[in-house]
Amino acid sequence: MMQARKIIVRGIVQGVGFRPFVYRLAKQYGLKGTVSNNAHGVEIEVEGDHVSMQSFIRSITHASPPLAFIDEIETKESSYKGYLDFAIQASNGSEDRFTLIAPDVAVCDDCLQELFDPADRRYRYPFINCTNCGPRFTIIQDIPYDRPNTTMSVFPMCTDCEREYNDPENRRFHAQPNACPVCGPSLTLCDSKQNKIQSDNILDRTAQLIKAGSIVALKGLGGYHLACDATNDEAVSKLRERKRRIEKPFAVMIPDRNWLERICTPTQEEISFIRSINHPIVLIRRKDNSPICSDVAPGNNYIGVMLPYPPLHHIVMREVAIPLVMTSGNISEEPIAYKDDEAFERLAAIADYFLVHNRDIHMRCDDSVGAVLNKRHTMLRRSRGYVPYPVKLNIHAQKNTLATGGHLKNTFCFIKNDFAFFSHHIGDLENYETLRSFTQGIEHFKNLFSITPEILAYDMHPEYLSTKYALESEIPVKIPVQHHHAHIVSCMAENDLNEAVIGVSFDGTGYGTDGNIWGGEFMITTMGDFKRIAHFEYFPLPGGEQAVKEPWRTGVALLNQVFGNEYKNVDIPFVRSIQTKSALAVIEKMIQQKLNTPVTSAAGRLFDGIAAICDVRASINYEAQAAIEFQMIANETVTGRYNYEIDTKSIPWRIKWNGIVRDILKDLQNNVPVSDISGKFHNTIAMIITDISEKIKKDTGLHDVVISGGVFQNALLVDKTVDYISKQGMKVYTHARVPPNDGGLSLGQAVVAMHKVL
């Protein structure tokens, strides 16, 4: 018996080969009808027998194209029209400008096979792609996503490419970046003064230069990378010096999957993460005998590893056959260079050579970074390969909202309908170039998703550039959002939590409602409000921001608060070393007289101070270096803990850490290894989280615990916290799709603001 159905598929289903996929599927099951794009997504009219129809509908979900993201499938009965065949119809012209867009993803296996097939017309062509892979977000200039609205518009397709593009049976059907050596982009190799390097094979020549110790700037999908031999100490040292990146870890690109276990000890979760279609950088524990230079990630047990993702990388990596440092093309904390003139201007003092191509990048987009935390693929920097995939919310927004994020690791976020469009990584808003990247990104998203924001959310900190941007905006409704409230709500939103939770937000800096620096917070949290229940006892930060850069100052402050001036009589290496510092007397005076010495409850700063007291790191060269190195040396098998008190006489409760400091000093005087001290300290912090969560549960009945903030990038702390709390019968929610650090703030801000105006 013949049936007729109308099927609406919503989600990322346009520009990803969904219509030809449906066409081929219908042919496979002998069905008749049509498929077309419309304002809602993809609309299918289909007729056939019941068994074939059900198999067809199931296959739409289970066998959809790699870049498709199905949000909803609506199926309803339709009148039988007697179609004679199945056809792809042209778009009906009524498309809403609001269309979900796929991100840039790694080259697919089919294209890779062609790339290295000498008989294929695209053999070693570095811009090979199809509907299932290649650039999207970085080349689109406007919508709809058609070739004239991309940076490929200047490359008219040749006859062969045009034929593929118009053939629904071909996997390049409507692949907007489709090209070949005859009609597409091409490469140029130059020295740092833009003199062209003549070579019969540019890619082989590039590989030779890298293997000889040169630094090469490679133009990729979302910007320029700086590449050098990761096994060459001299080359890595030269890159550090020129890039002004003293100790912050570099990312490493490996030639293929076989190299992963030669340099690291990956878990199955980490292997699946790095091999995913998104190809992020993944933090994986390095092998002791790894051939990677120690200077690639000094003081760190982990290496940020990624596989080649565009065809250009695949060709170069096959030629060099060794791991390469592949770091963002910038100096210090500037945004990644993505325009050619800009790259030559900013990177000429770093790179010896430039491998350039003539396909313009419209929107810069740095690499994504992830780690396995709580056995979940967790984004630490969400950018290339993931953006602009939205986060689906379980509430429909009545008004469009824009959130401007924080100061460090900035992202912005738009909410429209029930989608949160979470931006690519912008970076630290500390210079004009990054601020310009921030404003350009906002305008691009407004155009791309047809969003005119009516509500503007921003951080309460008055000196953040993102806050100043918000306050100067003409958007009528402006809502300040407390930093740690935003952290917790960002995690609630991605985990579809609507009811009140026990929120734990640990980071280094966040402006509190009392004007102090928060960062060790326990809150009863809802989407629209919070109540601060507990926090670490305040301690001084002598010099404010300078104490962040010089954790030894925080160490002095902690000791001074516990022992007063008697701390100088404590016989440990840290105390002996600071006696020689000329600034010590000034710092003590600052603490006593409260001059330029804000107070903080930040767990991140507590980690810093303890790391300094343990003589791990007196000053830092990148954010959170002291805390990271303290984690790296931890003995993870230690079971002991330190003493602490919780003062519950009034709300907010105060976590008194004096006992922790006293116990650590005893361990140091008894020559207990610092690795054991670090392990015990991590146990203690996880136990504090558990104790207070239990107390809140007893008082309120709440049993869901949400943890967020930059401190929860610490895998050891996350694992211990989840383990301890779970044993008490409570559920712990962590991040995955959204970074736990300040890169996730904007999502939380937007959701809070949306709820405040409901």
In short:
With 758 residues, the chain is α/β, with parallel strands linked by helices. It has 23 helices and 30 strands.
Notable features of this structure?
10-stranded mixed β-sheet; 758 residues; 7-stranded mixed β-sheet; 23 helices; alpha/beta
What is the mean pLDDT? 95
Q: Outline the biggest β-sheet.
A: 10 strands, mixed
Number of strands: 30
Number of helices: 23
CATH topology description of the domain at 187-357: DHBP synthase
Shape: globular
Rg, alpha carbons: 27 Å
Low-confidence stretches: none
What would you note in describing this structure?
The protein is of the alpha/beta class and 758 residues long. Among the domains are: 2-88, Alpha-Beta Plaits, CATH 3.30.70; 187-357, Alpha-Beta Complex (DHBP synthase). The chain contains 23 helices and 30 strands. The strands form five sheets. It has a ten-stranded mixed sheet with strand order 6-13-7-8-12-9-11-10-14-15, sandwiched between helices. A seven-stranded mixed sheet has the order 27-28-24-23-22-29-30, sandwiched between helices. Strand 27 (645-647) and strand 28 (653-656) form a beta hairpin. It is globular. The model has no long low-confidence stretch (mean pLDDT 95).
Question: Which helices and strands occur, and which strands form pairs?
Answer:
Layout: E1 2-12, H1 18-28, E2 32-38, E3 41-49, H2 50-62, E4 69-77, E5 86-88, H3 109-115, H4 159-165, E6 187-191, H5 202-211, E7 216-219, E8 224-229, H6 233-243, E9 251-253, H7 260-263, H8 268-274, E10 281-285, E11 302-306, H9 311-320, E12 324-328, H10 340-347, E13 353-357, E14 369-373, E15 376-381, E16 391-392, E17 401-403, E18 413-416, E19 419-422, H11 432-448, E20 455-459, H12 465-472, E21 477-481, H13 483-494, E22 501-511, E23 517-525, E24 530-536, E25 539-540, H14 545-549, H15 551-563, H16 573-578, H17 584-593, E26 599-600, H18 603-613, H19 625-632, E27 645-647, E28 653-656, H20 658-669, H21 674-700, E29 704-708, H22 715-726, E30 731-733, H23 745-756
Parallel strand pairs: 2-5, 7-13, 9-11, 10-14, 17-20, 20-21, 22-29, 24-28, 29-30
Antiparallel strand pairs: 1-3, 1-4, 2-3, 6-13, 7-8, 8-12, 9-12, 10-11, 14-15, 16-19, 17-18, 18-19, 22-23, 23-24, 25-26, 27-28
Helix pairs in contact: 5-9, 13-23, 15-17, 15-18, 18-19, 20-21, 21-22
